[in-house]
Amino acid sequence: MDNTLGKSNKQAIRSDAAPAPIGPYSQAIQVGNLVFCSGQTPLDPATGQIPDQLWDIGRQTRQVLENLKAVLAAAGCQMSDVVKTTVFLQHISDFAEMNKIYAEYFPTDQHPPARSTVEVGRLPKDALVEIECIATLG
Asked: b/e map of 110-119 (b: 16 or more CB within 10 Å)?
C-alpha cells in the first residue's frame, strides 16, 4: 500500500512574520502537497497582542489574512493556492464587513477557496475573527 501521506513526510512550517504558537501546535503542517494552516487571529507577530487600533472587524480580518499569508509564504504557497478556509466570527453580524476584506485576498474572479463560516462564543484574547486554511503546493 502506498502511504504518501505518512508521518515520514510531515513537516512543520514556521514563519517569524506571523505570531508564534502559544501552545502545543504548529503554525502549519505540510504533508505531501497539502499545507494545513492553524487558525490565525489578529495578533501582531512582534508583540503577540492585538494592537489597540485593531479593534474593529475589518482591521482584524486584514491582520488575520496577513498572518495567514506569511505562514503560507513560509511553506512556499500563495493565497491563490488556498483551497479551503474556515472563518470563526465572534459575532455573525460582522460577516458582511469580514467578507468585504476577505474578498480582497480571495477575489471571486480567481476561483476563491471553499469556505465555512461559523459564529463562536469566544476567541483567544477576545479576537473578533480567526481563520484557518488548507492550501496546495504548486
From this structure: eebeeeebee
pLDDT of residue 1: 37
| Average pLDDT estimate for 36-62 | 92
User: What is the rounded average pLDDT of the residues 28-32?
Assistant: 97
What CATH superfamily classification does 7-136 receive? Answer: RutC-like (3.30.1330.40)
pLDDT tens digits, one per residue of 73-100 = 999 999 999 999 999 999 999 999 999 9
